[in-house]
Every structure is written in C-alpha cells, then in structure tokens.
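FAQ: What does the model actually see?

It sees only this:
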Amino acid sequence: QVQVAESGGGLVQPGGSLRLSCGASGTGFNINAVDWYRQAPGKERELVATINKDGYTNYADSVRGRFTIIKNGNGNAGYLQMNSLAPEDTGVYYCKVEARIWTWNAVRDEIYWGQGTQVTVAS
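And it is asked to produce this:
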C-alpha cells in the first residue's frame, strides 16, 4: 500500500508562485509516473502536468511555460512549481502516483491519489 499526500497549497496573489509537494510513503514500490490534476469549483478534474520515471514531462496548454513538474526520489514523489499564477488556476490540486508494487510472489501496477491541496489565486 502506498500513501500519497500533497502539501504547499494556499492563498497567493495573481502573478505569484507556489510549490506543491507530493509525498509517497510505503514499502515495496517504485514510482512509474506522477501526475498533477486540479479541479476548479463546478468543473471536472483536469490533468495539469505529468512526469514519468524517465523524466518525460507533459503539460496542459493552459499551464505550459508557467508550471514545472519535478521528479524527486527522496521520499517525495515530486513537486509542482507554479509561477505567474492567475485566478483561473484556483482549485484543488491532486497528486496521482502510478506505482509498481513488488511482493514476494507478484508485481502489479496500482494508482494512488492524495486528498488534494487547495490553491487560491486572488488579490
């Protein structure tokens, strides 16, 4: 079992920056990919950024050039550096970890979500 938890959200003024962290804890797993999603009030959850174990990244058009997803192997699944924030970036940000679970007799791929962290961009 893998536990995922986000941190780093908060209130920031337009044009400001925030760094979100995604922590993944447990035993017997490797991370295949980390995705950041967000959900604005009244809207569906959308994919913001993704990074795989080889460092390949991809971004939603709305955040490309402003957000950077970073992979980290030291107890954190990674970070989402968000710059030049705008009110439309407001929402709950979720980290999704795609993990490979190793047990004594099997290997399987699983997906784990964090509880989300609120990001509010307002003056």
